[in-house]
Structures are given as structure tokens and as C-alpha cells.
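look at this fold:
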Amino acid sequence: MEYNIGQAVTDYLRENKIRQVMLAQMLNYDPGNLSRLLRKNSMSLDMIVKISVALKYNFLREVSCKLTEEISKAEHDS
């Protein structure tokens, strides 16, 4: 499944004019470590939940939608 959660969070921050350092403060997380984390295309479920709660946006819904699309496509291709 092609879904880059780090990019999704970065896009959300940009669209909502929230700086990474602000998110790092919300999470009580080192800004440098957060920057490295957001450059990855995957992260732990726990971190996705923490970011979702901090930003009041459900990133898991996006992941779920992509997963549903992939399953549907796989079933259709079978």
C-alpha cells in the first residue's frame, strides 16, 4: 500500500499553518526527532494516534480509506 503518513502530516501542518516546532511542543517531543520522523513514510501506530489527538485530525481514517481501496482493488483483480 502506497501511503506516506509523514507526508500526510507535513501536508496537514502546511495547510493549517502549523509549524513542526509547535507540533513537537504539543507532543513534548524533540523538534529534530519529529522532523526526522516526518521524513519517513511510516511510523508507529502509537505515534499516529498521538499526532492525531494533538492536531485533532484523524490520520487513521486516511490510512483506513487507503487500505479499503487496496483491498477492493485486490478483490476486483482476483
Remarks:
- The radius of gyration is 14 Å.
- The chain is about 75% helix and 0% strand.
- The chain has a mean pLDDT of 93.
- The first helix runs from residue 5 to 15.
